[in-house]
Amino acid sequence: MHIAVGLLVATLLVSGCGFQLRGLATESSLATVSLSVADAYGPFDAALREVLGESDVQVVAPGAAPYHVELSGERNTRRALSSSSRVQVAEYELNLQITLSLFDASGNPLDGPVILRLARTFAFDPGSLQATNEEEERVRGEMRRELASRILRRVETRARQAG
Q1: For residue 60, what is the enclosing H or E element?
Q2: 40-72 pLDDT, tens per residue?
Q3: b/e string for 52-91 if b means 16 or more Cβ within 10 A?
């Protein structure tokens, strides 16, 4: 009985603070948005469209939505962060950077251009290059999704301020 009450209290506390499991979509206050991504159909464009779709935001043609998101200058870099006693790379830092500009339906600037950045580290195992490459791609995918979620939240915030 005490365990059930404890679980109920914990659930209420966690849900009350806005906690949400990673990867679960939240409904957006936006209904539609138009996009212009420098690398159309690239991995970041796909991640952004996926995040928008999960949040019930429809991507429409420019001029058909109250807000237009323009993304350019995407940069993915990797640099050695630490080395092992054998003077081999032990960790890499991955960086993702993109430039965001936000416009209203008339083309008036609402935000930007602003550079959004994200960095993550991952362990490098020279004995298992296949696994290391897969881990790097997994981390990059998570970074794209996180940055896409940040962009959605930023657009929602600017939309609330403008409206």
Answers
A1: strand 58-60
A2: 889 999 999 999 999 999 999 988 999 999 999
A3: bebbebeeeeeeebebbbbbeebeeeeeebeeeeeeebbe
- All domains in the chain, ordered by first residue: 27-162 (3.30.160.150)
Region at 135 (left for phi over 0; alpha for psi -120 to 50; beta for the rest):
alpha
CB 128 within 8 A of CB 103: no
Task: Give pLDDT tens digits for 80-103.
Answer: 888 777 777 888 899 999 999 999
Question: How far apart are alpha carbons 22 and 33 in whole angstroms?
Answer: 23
The H-assigned helical ranges of 17-162 are 43-54, 129-162
For residue 134, which amino acid is it? Answer: E
| Consecutive H or E run containing 4 | helix 2-16
Using alpha carbons only, how large is the chain's radius of gyration in Å? 20
